[in-house]
Design brief:
By secondary structure, this protein is an all-alpha fold. The chain is built from six helices and no strands. Keywords: Coiled coil, Signal.
């Protein structure tokens, strides 16, 4: 049974020696050669100590190799732990930077969309305000032109009234002509239509017609007509003043509206500048954080790959150490069994020699 176990151990050690491992020092020694040397010494009847010294030297060689491998293994473990800690920190740092830059990038992109929408609204409001201002300016120009024309019409009406008063005075003095009254009446009729005051002109025009058709008139009739002219002139002056006041109010309202629209445009212009500055900042933010995220992603991928490679290499170191250590344990176990077998063999030989001596002495 011991012999079977010895053969099994021998095969396992030999198999381990044949494997290519980074820390396999068994190539410098051979358990098979040791066994052959032990067998040769046994056949030449070498002393037990000489045979055991061969096995002890082999054991010392295995132990020495294990000590060296342990030192190298501890160095590798320290390096693996240091590399693992370093790569773990680098990967975590890259993840944190990627997370933060991506979050900031999303914020900037969302803010840019919102600012772009606000800019479009601002542009639409600016266009509407400018259009409104143009409409107000056009209406003001039209009203100013209309007031200027109506002003001339009022002035023409007053001039016609003054001319009628002069003609009436001339008739009163005996130097005037009713033909001139007929002419100026036509002018007054036209101006009454222009200023839309025909109702106020109607009494004097009727008086002129009565005066022109009457062959016999007195000073009282002329004075009454003159009084009608004075009343008409006063009424037209008042109407002209009212129209001028109304136009002044319109101008004030226009200026007020123009100022308010101007304030609105100024506010929109300032808002447009702020939005453009904000968009420029957000574009820069997007570019910066995109670059940071891209760099962090590359760093993460690179360090993750290096970490995976280091982890795989350290696992290989661990497997090599475990494999070589187990192989040496098998060798030491085999050496111990060989020592027992050698000692048993020498003990058996001694017993046989002792029995032989006894038989010889008895004969």
């Amino acid at each position: 049974m011991r012999t079977v176990l010895l053969v099994i151990l021998l095969l396992s050690v030999a198999s381990a020696a044949a494997s290519k491992n980074r820390f396999d020092y068994s190539k410098k020694r051979s358990i098979t050669s040791v066994m052959a040397e032990v067998e040769a010494k046994i056949q030449t009847k070498a002393p037990l100590d000489a045979i055991l010294n061969v096995l002890r030297d082999f054991r010392d060689s295995v132990n020495f190799e294990q000590v060296n491998h342990d030192e190298i293994y501890q160095t590798q473990v320290s390096e693996c732990e240091s590399e693992d800690e370093f790569r773990s920190k680098e990967v975590q740092d890259a993840k944190n930077i990627l997370r933060d830059s991506t979050a900031q990038l999303n914020v900037c992109q969302t803010s840019k969309i919102r600012a772009t929408n606000q800019q479009e609204v601002n542009q639409h409001q600016t266009f509407t305000a400018e259009k409104h201002l143009n409409m107000v300016m056009t209406a003001a120009e039209q009203e100013a032109s209309y007031f200027k024309k109506r002003g001339r019409d009022y002035e023409d009406a007053l001039h016609a009234i003054d001319e009628a008063s002069d003609i009436l005075a001339a008739i009163y003095s005996g130097s005037g002509s009713f033909a001139e009254i007929s002419r100026v009446s036509k002018v007054m009729l036209q101006t009454s239509f222009s200023i839309k005051e025909t109702a106020k002109f109607a009494p004097i025009l009727y008086a002129f017609s009565q005066l022109a058709s009457s062959k016999d008139f007195d000073e009282t009739s002329l004075e009454r007509v003159a009084q009608l002219l004075d009343t008409l002139k006063q009424n037209i002056h008042e109407a002209y003043n009212d129209y001028a006041d109304s136009n002044a109010q319109s101008i004030a309202a226009f200026n007020d509206q123009k100022e308010r629209i101007g304030q609105t445009l100024a506010r929109l212009s300032a808002q447009a500048d702020r939005l453009q500055d904000k968009l420029d900042h957000l574009v820069q933010c997007i570019g910066t954080n995109s670059a940071i995220a891209q760099t962090a992603s590359g760093k993460l991928q690179r360090n993750q790959q290096l970490w995976d490679q280091a982890t795989a290499l350290c696992a290989t170191f661990q497997n090599e150490y475990n494999f070589a250590t187990q192989a040496r344990r098998n060798e030491l176990q085999l050496v111990s069994q060989l020592e027992e077998m050698v000692e048993d063999r020498f003990s058996q030989v001694e017993d046989e020699n002792h029995e032989r001596k006894i038989r010889i002495s008895q004969n």
